[in-house]
Amino acid sequence: xxxxxxxxxxxxxxxxGRDRLYEIQGPEEREAAFHDFHAAWxxxxxxxxxxxxxxxxxxxxVGSTRVCxxxxxxTGMNEGAELFVCPGGEGTGETTRRSVxxxxxxxxxxxxxxxxxxxxxxxxxxxxxxxPAFGYEPRLPRAALGxxxxxxxxxxxxxxxxxxIDGRLAGQGRAPxxxxxxRLREFLRTFGMLGGQAVEAFARFFSSGPLTHSAxxxxxxxxxxxxxxxxxxxxxxxxxxxxxxxxxxxxxxxFPTRAFETHPDQLPxxxxxxxxxxxxxxxxxxGLCQQCADLYSSGASRAPGPLVR
Amino acid sequence: xxPVFNWQLGREMTYPYAAAFxxxxxxxxxNINRCIACQSCTMACKSTWxxxxxxxxxxxxxxxxxxxxxxxxxxxxxxxxxxxxxNPEGLRWSGKLxxxxxxxxxxxxxxxxxxxxRMLAPDxxxxxxxxxxxxEWNSPNIYEDNPVGERGKFFDWHKTGEKLPExxxxxxxLARICNHCTYPACLAACPRKAIYKRPEDGxxxxxxxxxxxxxxxxxxxxxxxxxxRGNTRIxxxxxxxxxxxxxxxxxxxxxxxxxxxxAACIGQIRLQGLVKLNPDGTWAEDRYxxxxxxxxxAKVALPLYPQFGTAPNGYYIPPRWVPRDYLxxxxxxxxxxxxxxxxxxxxxxxxxxxxxxxxxxxxxxxALKEGPMVYEGTLRGRRVTLYNDAVIAYGRNGEELFRxxxxxxxxxxxxxxxxxx
Lengths: 309, 421
Prior knowledge:
The complex is a heterodimer. By secondary structure, chain A is mostly helical. In chain A, 50% of the residues lie in helices and 6% in strands. Chain A has three domains: 38-86 and 96-116, no CATH class; 147-228; 243-309, no CATH class. Chain A has helices spanning 2-5, 11-21, 27-44, 49-56, 59-64, 94-97, 112-130, 147-171, 179-190, 198-206, 213-221, 223-228, 269-278, 290-301, and strands spanning 67-72, 80-85, 98-104. Chain A is elongated, with a radius of gyration of 26 Å. In chain B, the strands form eight sheets. In chain B, strands 12-3-14-13 form a four-stranded mixed beta sheet. In chain B, β16 (373-379) and β17 (382-387) form a beta hairpin. The radius of gyration of chain B is 22 Å and the shape is globular.
């Protein structure tokens, strides 16, 4: 509030009004008075204008949620918007159970342009969550390859969703032109394994028509299989049946690697069987890193019997 | 601005108000070599003064790990950076250490936070400072126990970095409260004159009825010990447990008691007292006051960042394993001599160091009673002789508070009770 006032002649009026509240003796009463006073000045200075504008650009949010609460963010990383849904109770409708929480640093209110761009993006996420056509699910499906792969899928999903949102915002003229370049850079970093097909795949998310949550999940889970599918199809596929690009993650351990086993098809059947104990859907065509190949080879060659004699 | 005399800088300096000194000054000595960061002081203060709504992020007493830790984050690095910008020619000291109580550490030739007018913004500001962000107040224990390693190598410590006299891999705990400065920056900056220094003991307080939450004190205090409370819209700070200093804590039965953070100190690093002042603000000769002795006679206790110019009344015995250039920046030019004396204490210093935390009452005076020699040997090539001298502590009215000895009394349990209490 004081930062906003520093550039206005109204600071004296603000100070005079606020100073009077210090005379209130009761601590609770005084705190309530401060709250009301600051709320009134918040409106008077128009600090909430951008918040209202961003919210009204998303009529689905306004119509499908009970309340929107703006909270103080602890750090810059903590800024963002979230959809909260209370557990259902008798007689409570969907709308009544939903609320939106926006976390902001107070100083963010002083830069309306940046704030509006930020809020548009964040509220688009909420809008997608509320859109039946998008089919949002709060939890991503469990990855067959373990928790490391789940983290990877989550990261990819975030990039895809951000790309999809900013593509629509750019199409509506509500995001700066530079956003495409920024998102493309992030996409290329995340989906380096697509090689020359990455730019084309990016266009599917940035410029194409409506997408769904499941389409994003499918691409995030198996990007290589998805680019092989007919353009626009973005269908899920079991596992990539092609060689892994250098720098992508081993399907077994989930770590990025530049040393994939060059001939996984020549692994002895005992090794393949041993891998399949842990990864039933794995085939040599999925590939694996040299370290995993060594690990499973050494395990397979070990003489049967107790490991500790 | 009228000139005032700052003995820690060995010169006159500018300050927004004319000098005025209390009858006695609240002061304390922390022996960093003993601090284990148990945070007992922190919690003693918290549970006494800052446990209410709106004070969640408020820690009047805290212990931080140096060099990376800080509450608020990087407070000293930030103010030192500002001070360095105000002193392009460097934060220089000249002269030599001396017995002169007006210039014990030589003379500071740089600008203080009150003497950097070119840097002040807006022009009406009186003190060089900055307002920490909420984020900086949120993590009082950030970088706890993070040591300094080899320069340029992340998480790689010196393999033989623990050898004295200076460790190459090091950190230390810095316990801090308000320094109840002789020239408080918070007081200088307050536009409403809501901050005052008590004439009886020099404790710096914020008048809660006058404060209007401008946060100029928070911005100005270089030690960042003035804090803003969001729900009352008022700033608050350490009150030096003044009811205890006044002898009004029922536990003390009228006798002045040390603050809660001092009394709770597990590591026995703390000693607090009241020192007598001369009309010019220097300390009046009081040879057997333990604080006076540690600061002006033994010279093992040094002010924290004296170059700020506020004449803080908190003194520290520097940690002996830390690189000296870091310590010189933090405690001024007296560091080498202080560590030398602390490492090789004479009979009196060894006895006075036993006074720390033997009592919760304020020690006004001490006396020594010589005891027998109990040890003779060498330590790192030096000859060492220990005597089991006794030290007797007296209170304000001359009453004996306690007596203790250099050697801790040892009770050998009879064999029949060896494993019982």
